[in-house]
Amino acid sequence: MTGGGQSTPATGATVVIDRGALDDLLAGISGQGYQVVGPTVHDGAIVYRDVRSTADLPIGWGDEQDGGRYRLRRREDGALFGYAVGPHSWKQFLHPPRLRLWRAQRGESGEGLEFIEESTEVPRYAFFGVRSCELHAIAIQDRVFLPGANPDQSYAARREDVLLVAVNCGEPSGTCFCSSMGTGPKASSGYDLALTELLDGENHRFVVEVGTERGALVLGGVAYRLAEDVDQHDAAEVTAGAVAKMGREMPEVDLRALLYANYEHPRWDDVADRCLTCGNCTMVCPTCFCTSVEDTADLAGEGAERWRRWESCFSVSFTHVTGGQARQTPRSRYRQWMTHKLATWIDQFGTSGCVGCGRCITWCPVGIDITEEVSAILANPAPPEEAS
Amino acid sequence: MAASPSAEPLTPALGAMTPHPHRVVSRRRETHDTWTIALEPLPGHELPLFAPGQFGMLYAFGAGEIPISLSGEATALDPLRCTIRAVGGVSGALCALQPGDLVGLRGPFGSRWPLAEAIAGDVLIVAGGLGLAPLRPAIHHLLSHRNEYERVVICYGGRSADELLYMNEFEGWRHRYDLDIDVIVDIAASDWHGKVGVVTKLVELAAFDPENTIAMACGPEVMLRFVALTLKARNLPSERLYISMERNMHCAIAQCGHCQFGPRFICREGPVLRHDEIEPWLKVPEL
Amino acid sequence: MESIEAELAGTRMFRNLSPQHIRAIAELGEEIEFVDGRALMIEGDPADAFFLIRDGFVALEIQAPTGTITIETLHNGDPVGWSWLFEPYLTHFDARSRGTTRAIKFDAATLRRRSAEDAQLGFELMRSFTSVIVERLHATRLQLLDVYGGVAVS
């Protein structure tokens, strides 16, 4: 059962492991000192929690997603990855929702003030079951937190050691649109291993693309054979099938130019009538990164702390100037979120902020669909610039 | 930007979100709700020199942190000075500090006034209310490098005589023959014998060559829009007007998202921004 | 020293007038000087003159029970007084010189009569003064916005 004596595959190789070997793979990963997190069924959804063996995975589960709708359903097979993404994204591990940055101590009678930073000892995560859209989302957040003079140390520490085991989608959901965003369904880079699940009756196996040496290492102790043409073909079919089943589509136009020209489009009033500014979209979006700083003090006034927590641009007090809030209306805040995600993000970070995962559509209580909003503006855009 | 001279290494190397402890060495009341405090770092916590226009994040123990522009001279000889208006919990706490009290400071952040670009031309400074504070380091630079510039004109507008900043310094500046400086107030008390009206009036009267002038303006956003219109009427090209913008900030390192203005992070691309680049964005209500 | 005619032609408010109209106005102007504290006009008086400040400082004032309030100050190139254009042709504010002010004083009463006869002249005068009034209105509105004060407490 083990691959005792078998050398680890080369980086860039494509191998095949069978369903039974998957537990060996998980064991191999935790044997290398990783804390494995991956999809599990919990509270009626598929969310990322600790995974110790394949028994923890959503075996035989699928999902149904639409605007404002998410349901799990029982599949007729034993697929381990027969569903699309759920409300969780990996950002909660790399960019935690609450993080203490430092503690401050004030000496007696005002003598001395010391700031003690939190240590950057972080768990060594393995993300098991990362979709292509999520790989892109991680790469996008890398561009937010890592470059420049002040990289986020906590993010960098978590990111450096994380092992990424990707899964190529076979079952996009009703709200997925990664194809039209160029972010999937097949993982093309940024992974240590990429799995494609193949289920034909008794022959339940996984095609594994080895992305890095680190990925190759965790295959030590896992029985594998080199992939043959038929395996590659079957894997390609999975991807082709996913492309065909994609739930939504983002119009493939210059979104930056479109949105820059349409800041006063009447569609913003239309969506403002529906948007509750609940901020769900920002919580589930894998690239949204806004945070707020909370400075607290203890009752005695001797100790203080600074915490950082996730924030949403939909909060009315998110942006203010002397004299009051700068985005008072829901209209302006929805517009800020969408134009940031699809347009100004490009100027800021060089790529779109959207990966087409569809979470914002599924988890919006009123089912606002970002692809539909873009289409509506595109159908009737503002006339070309009548510049002053 | 020069590094602070002969500083001990920062002990230990602190992250960008961690304040450096500083001691308040003096405090001066400017108006009924505005104070200027001077800070000196505790040993090992010297920050790089702030350039005119840049800001720091000033932390009042337990209360919070706000962005405050440097308002002193940007040299190694002057302690770090900042002018704060008490409008809320954190600024109120900072304004209540006494000499000897300790605060936290991170910085410098942001873009600077275009003092190098302005060399060999006229310089027009337009300040409204508290907007004079971030311009004060620029004024000091112009005056201590006076022969690098042609005409230097300062237009300062405030609400009333008792809300003007740095008036003791103004008197000294007024007596310089190489500086054209004037003040105007919206509301005149009976003992005010100076000009009354809006600061754009001073800009209309100012003597400068619109083809060879850099203008730097700071003040409430509405005032800046009126100033921009007045300068347009005087044929000053929009790309030669620089304004300092304001938004709330939490991180000051372009990672918290609060200070975004269209594609720009005011903490990093700003606060000093060239007017022609942001003019289309200024026109979008509730951007 | 520039003739009054040449000076009017160089001002922003009159530069688009025809030479004949400029001459018609200039004919009714005379140079005048005010010492410190002297009034150019007093509230309530008939508005029979308007002024163009050549070099000086004029304060528009109103006398309140608590004392004199300065509403606005006018400077080089500014016209002073427009109540002469509108009924009941009465001055609304005091205008007082601070320091020495050299100005041109125009016989507004005669100008009113001439405008009644020459509609084109009347129209041009109205247009010129309206542009000044609009500018002052913008400035006054900005003053009213009290942009430096009235801060919300966070």
Q: In words, what does this structure look like?
A:
- The complex is a heterotrimer of chains A (388), B (287) and C (154).
- Chain A has 388 residues and is of the alpha+beta class.
- Chain A has helices at residues 22-31, 91-94, 132-145, 153-161, 178-181, 213-218, 229-244, 255-260, 267-274, 280-284, 330-349, 359-362, 370-379, and strands spanning 14-18, 35-42, 45-50, 61-66, 69-74, 98-106, 113-117, 125-130, 163-167, 193-200, 203-210, 225-226, 291-297, 303-310, 320-321, 324-325.
- In chain A, strands 3-2-8-9-10-11-1-12 form an eight-stranded mixed sheet, with helices on both faces. Chain A has a four-stranded antiparallel sheet with strand order 7-6-14-13, with no helix packed on it.
- In chain A, helix 9 crosses helix 11.
- Chain A is globular and about 70 Å long.
- Chain B is α/β, with parallel strands linked by helices.
- Chain B has six helices and 15 strands.
- In chain B, helix 3 (167-174) links the parallel strand 8 (152-158) and strand 9 (180-185).
- Residues 1-11 of chain B have low confidence and may be disordered.
- Chain C has a single domain (4-144), classed as Jelly Rolls (Sandwich), CATH 2.60.120.
- Chain C has four helices and eight strands; from the N terminus they run ααββββββββαα.
- Chain C has helices at residues 4-9, 19-26, 108-117, 119-144, and strands at residues 29-34, 39-41, 49-55, 58-64, 67-74, 79-80, 94-97, 101-107.
- At the A-B interface, strand 6, strand 7, strand 13, strand 14 and strand 15 of A face strand 6 of B.
Rg of chain A, alpha carbons: 23 Å
Q: Strand count, sense and closure of the main sheet of chain A?
A: 8 strands, mixed
Identify the CATH architecture of the largest domain in chain B.
3-Layer(aba) Sandwich
N-to-C SSE series of chain B?
A: EEEEEHEEHEHEEHEHEEEEH
**Largest sheet of chain A, order of strands side by side?**
3-2-8-9-10-11-1-12
Structure annotation, total helices of chain A: 13
- In round numbers, the mean pLDDT of chain B is 92
Helix- and strand-based class of chain A?
Answer: alpha+beta
Can you give the helix content of chain A as a percent range?
Answer: 25-40%
Distance between the termini of chain B: 32 Å
In terms of DSSP E residues, the strand content of chain B is 25-35%
How many E-type strands of chain A? 16
Determine the most extensive contact between two protein chains: A-B, 51 and 43 residues
Put simply, the count of helices of chain B is 6
Please mark out the parts of chain B with pLDDT under 50 across 5 or more consecutive residues, or reply none. Answer: 1-11
- Rounded to the nearest angstrom, the radius of gyration of chain B is 19 Å
